[in-house]
Amino acid sequence: MKELNRISSLATAWRRRVLTAAALLGLVAVSAPATDVKPTATDGKPAIDPQADKLLRRMGDYLAQAQFFSVNAEVWQDLQLASGQRAQAGRTVEVQVRRPNRLHTELRSTRRNRGLYYDGKSITLLNRVENFYGSIPAPGTLDEALDLACERFGITMPLEDVVVSDPYQNAIHKAVSGTYLGPVTVLGVPCEHLAFSQGMVDWQFWIEAGAKPVPRKIVITYKDEDGAPQYTAIFSNWDFETKLPDFLFNFEPPSGATKISVAEFKADDQAHKGGSK
Length: 277
What we know:
outer membrane lipoprotein receptor (LolB), chain A, 7 helices, alpha+beta, twelve-stranded mixed β-sheet
């Protein structure tokens, strides 16, 4: 994205929480970083393989030029149980985007059923299981809404990496190395495999080969966490043809739904600091 006052790296975005919003939404999204600087290794050669950079840029441009699209993803996240055992939590995410200022997502798992609506004026989070929701004002573009939600309310959007207006810049910023690992397949789809690092966080893209260079898989590894947990998203059902009408992004409260307030991140942070003195 345009990196307007962006204050988090991948690792801090992973850890940050605002309790009210987290209880309401339960959505974890990761934002890969962005820059035009191409680091060089100690031997003077580019640390980012030109082929990896070219393929990543091609993917980013393809997504950025799409006025609207829909996609599904199966997301897996490493967790550590109270016993110390490592496990994976899975969920499915459906995303619908209409640029410049519309977003609708649905998250489902065996225990969760939650939606997010952005209509150009506000972002609304709905917990369908417990039937309550909260809204925050968010005028402007989708990028501006994503920044506002993250910086003021500690809310990160599902699959934000493919939603932002400039996915390439969002992904390449702070990368210290990048490698093209060659052709592979993801669920039978021919792809190009790329691997990047920004130090304590590694991330990989599997980009569909051919005329539609969309991401088919993303893996992020947090090396600064115990056990180097991973976040994995596998994409399917990319649709750039079906038009997305207004009603998909306009929130209508379900019957009997309760509205709750969403705490502002900075306000809570300042209150906590004041109370600790």
